[in-house]
Amino acid sequence: MPLTESFKNLLIRGLLAGLVAGLLAGAVAFVIGEPHVNAAIAIEESASAAAEAEPSAAEVHEHATAEAHEHPAPGAAATAAETDAAHSHGEDALVSRDGQRAGLFLATALAGLALGAIYASVTYYARRASTLSAPVLALALAGLGWLAIEAVPFFKYPANPPAVGDPDTIDKRTLLWLASVVLGLLAVAVAAYAARIVAANDLLTVRIAAPLLAFLVVVGVSYLALPDVDEVGSDFPASLLWEFRISSLTVQATLWLALGLGFAFLTERAARTRSAVAVAGR
């Protein structure tokens, strides 16, 4: 990648590639991810309905006494009405499933734009320290980004469907996931540094093994240091959980692969255009 390219050009290229990648990832999520989300929500709603049925039976039993029925305590009717109203309000989702499906593409497009901007910024500085050609560098950065930000956190804290997880621990789980992302970036940075150290070595096996070993050591230590989180109930279908996680990983792989390929394509096209202009100007 020529050093004469401005940051603005790279940023526009990253935003365009990120937008396309986000829309493609949204399409993959809609096709292979939504059915699993719907199945998980159905399980969650069935469990909630079963849990609500138990208090109703107890209520009927208590209501059997004629005295309690004929002489309710002051304010009991108002309290019951307030409870019913709150219950009905709680059942209404802020955003319907149709609205969530429609917003899926908007969310992935915005995520792709943000990721494309970050990716272009990293590329702008990485080209100064790399001897790789522009397309190869673009693909390499996309692969390393997926490895650090998606793969490393995923294999420690894999994605869970809506019916899985304790709402009270969501803040803790989010912080642990962010910590795993930071450690993934650290592992990739250490591996890149190790690769630079052994770049002049005559043995190909050393040039491959050194960064790979450095990466695995950092990731292994990180996995041991971070606490485990397992909130999947024993009654949740294992096949649905597995399929949901695979679809989540596929969506993220699509996002990063499309981003790298799109950026590499636009880079090659820009280089060809500059070459054609240079030849025509002679």
Please give a quick description of this structure.
80% of the residues lie in helices and 0% in strands.
Structure description:
- The protein is mostly helical and 282 residues long.
- It has a domain at 7-45 and 97-164 and 232-280.
- It contains eight helices and no strands.
- α5 crosses α6 (170-197).
- The model is unreliable at 56-61 and 63-92 (pLDDT under 50).
Number of beta strands: 0
Strand pairing plus helix content: what structural class?
mainly alpha
The H-and-E topology, N to C, reads as HHHHHHHH
Number of separate helices: 8
Q: What fraction, in percent, of the residue positions are helical?
A: over 70%
Characterize the overall form: flat
Major sheet attributes: none
First and last CA, distance: 23 Å
Keywords: Membrane, Transmembrane, Transmembrane helix
Transmembrane segments: 12-32, 102-122, 134-155, 175-194, 206-226, 246-266
Biased composition (Basic and acidic residues): 59-72
Region (Disordered): 52-91
List the defining traits of the structure above.
single chain, 282 residues, mainly alpha, 8 helices, CbtA_put, transmembrane, membrane, transmembrane helix
Topology:
Layout: H1 7-62, H2 66-70, H3 76-91, H4 97-129, H5 134-156, H6 170-197, H7 204-225, H8 238-280
Helix pairs in contact: 1-4, 1-8, 4-5, 5-6, 5-8, 6-7
